[in-house]
Amino acid sequence: MIQFLQNLIDAISLGSIYALVALGIGLLFGILRLINFAHGDFITIGCYALIVPSADVTARLLIGAWPWPVMIPMICLIVVIVALMTDVLVFRPLRRTSSPTLMIASFAVSYIIQNGVLMAYGSRPKAVDLWSGANTQVMIGILRVPMLQLITLVVTLVLMVAISLFLKKTSYGVQMRAAAEDFRMAQYLGVRGNVVIGIAFAISGILAGVVSLLYTTQSGSLSYTMGVPLALFAFVAVVVGGMGSLVGAVVGGFTIGFIVTMLQAYLPPDLRAFRDAFAFAFVILVLLIRPAGIVPARSSFERV
């Protein structure tokens, strides 16, 4: 039982990361119908912004050496600027094209960012010591819990509450929800499309910046493709949760985190190398039972 609870905490922590990434992807899909595969590379940019640009094997902290009250907003600002630039330079000119075209464009943006990181930092993975004290363990009853997992969970809850309040209580939030329901009708009613989409990109960038800090602290290393697996699992989480549903994206993130962690813990040792295959098989099973996702968007059936 103790081991199960320990694994459950691990699952919630991993699910929190997936939920934040899925929320960033889900926000853009809800409004723009854009499956942004470059979102994982936004996370990579946030991670690499912590260190001095160099091809040396040993990383030297740059922004990562600043006090955290300055470092966190700066990393988020950098990622937000990159996200907004991709919107202005790539996605805005393609606004009236089809969803597959936008998706291919996001693939192109992803590869451009990855190659840009390669040119500036080289291809070798780099070890980074960021907030190593957060990896110490604390006792909660009979359980040993890494401090970072508690921080991840608290940060996730705070961000979700903040986004929920923004969407429900502010004018721009209401406009974003209207645009997610029916973008064209929202424009007829006075919603400025570019502003709403820009805000969605900015929020997506903030989420990617926060994830980059949490993930770097957790992994302790940097790689120019480190954001890709996160984006892949988060995209699966968005589909499992329900395309176009922000609640579904969060639920899907925690679901994927639970499945992956439990498979890693309870699969026979010989099969653990194939964990992801079992995870995706389970995803197919969920989609066969609920094709529209666990929490389908209200307008999903109309869109299909």
Automatic annotation (TrEMBL):
Tree of life domain: Bacteria
UniProt-annotated location(s): Cell membrane
Keywords of the record: Amino-acid transport, Cell membrane, Membrane, Transmembrane, Transmembrane helix, Transport
Membrane-topology descriptor: Multi-pass membrane protein
Record InterPro entries: ABC_transp_permease, BCAA_transport_permease
KW Protein biosynthesis (keyword) present: no
Transmembrane segments: 12-35, 42-63, 69-90, 102-122, 142-167, 194-215, 221-240, 247-266, 278-297
CDD domains: TM_PBP1_LivH_like
Family recorded in the similarity comment: Belongs to the binding-protein-dependent transport system permease family. LivHM subfamily.
This protein's name: Branched-chain amino acid transport system permease protein
Protein species of origin: Labrys monachus
